[in-house]
Amino acid sequence: MDMPKATNAATETMNKEKPHPLPQDVPLPIFVYSKNYNIDLGAHVFPAIKYGRIYQSLKENKLFDRHSFIPASLVSRESASLVHSEDYLNDLMNLEMTRKLYRSELPLTQEVVTAFFLSSGGTLLAAEQALEKKKAINLGGGFHHSFPDRAEGFCYLNDVAIAIRKLQKEKKVEKVLIIDLDVHQGNGTANTFQKDSSVFTFSMHEQNNYPLKETSTLDIGLATGLGDKEYLAQLKGALEKIQQQFQPDLIFYLAGVDVYREDRLGGLKMTFDGIRQRDEMVRDFAASIPLAVTLAGGYALNDQDTISLHLQTCKVMTESSATIKEED
Ligand SMILES: [Zn+2]
Question: How much is the pTM?
Fold first, then answer.
């Protein structure tokens, strides 16, 4: 930030005159969101209306009063093509259910495709904000089952992969770490960066669950039924190992909450408290490194649990937040 030092009163005046630049003490994380992330899929297991409910809850919570909420915009096709093949993007944008698309478990409609371009734009924006201000959350994203040339699961575009390629192309980052703690392996992401040593892909997931596994830089496949204590011990060990091997310019965290014990698509036994500790561990690991968070999966039997768990992640990321300080 390039602002002169100012008292609170002066800052207020400055903000009135200049509504656009962030005030100097905007608390972190910055939130990125679009109402068009939300798609009503009816009784579908993918709760695509969760995004709006999370956003609403954040806006109603005094804790987030002073946080910035920035609207996501569509990622360009050019950026998407840094990861995805032209053929795949043609099929996707023309809504043609070809072999490249048939592994998708979502409908192929304009509304859905637009939501994916927006979510990718949101993850890119969150990463840019993280590089500038240290920490940001896209209230969406984390579509790690999308491959360069095909869709899979609930994922049409790999938002994190697109953001990484775009930021590398612009020379804003060199080395990037992905911490993927969704209960499902980040197979599309692993495949995308398999031969790219500038991106460290770490996935810790339930081994005997969807999807077919690809090879990440570091994979930890967990036994079904694993609880908080063992999970957190495994995570601690993995993060220590990564710290010795790789010094990233930016970290993406896929904070999937489908590790919860009442998740419909996950078989781990984590509690609210265990997931909070998991998020804290990642937050503290990234203490001095820009951190961009995406929500990723969450399919609790009770939708409200999914919302509460994602909100818990937002809260954890807020708690250690240093406020933005201008440099002398
Ligand atoms: Zn998942």
Answer: 0.90
Condensed to tens digits (0 to 9), the pLDDT of residues 287-326 reads 999 999 999 999 999 999 999 999 999 999 998 644 444 3
Reported as a single tens digit per residue, the pLDDT across 157-188 is 999 999 999 999 999 999 999 999 999 999 99
SS3 content of the chain, % helix, strand, coil (to 5): 40, 15, 45
Residues with CB under 5 A from ligand 1 (ion): 182, 184, 256, 258, 297
pLDDT at 43: 76
Amino acid at 145: H
Task: Give the Å distance between the CA of 156 and the centre of ligand 1.
Answer: 14
8 alpha carbon to ligand 1 midpoint, in Å?
44
Alpha carbons 54 and 311: distance in angstroms, whole number: 7
Mean pLDDT within 30-44: 90
CA 298 to ligand 1 centroid distance, Å: 7
Cα three-residue angle 224-225-229, rounded to 5 degrees: 115
Average pLDDT rounded to a whole number, residues 66-87: 98
Around 185, how many Cα atoms within 13 Å sit in the side-chain half-sphere?
A: 22
One-letter identity of residue 143: F
Q: Which residues are catalytic?
A: 145
Query: What domains are defined for the chain?
Result: 32-319 (3.40.800.20)
Gap between the Cα atoms of 93 and 174, Å rounded? 30
Say how many Å lie between the CA of residue 237 and the centre of ligand 1: 22
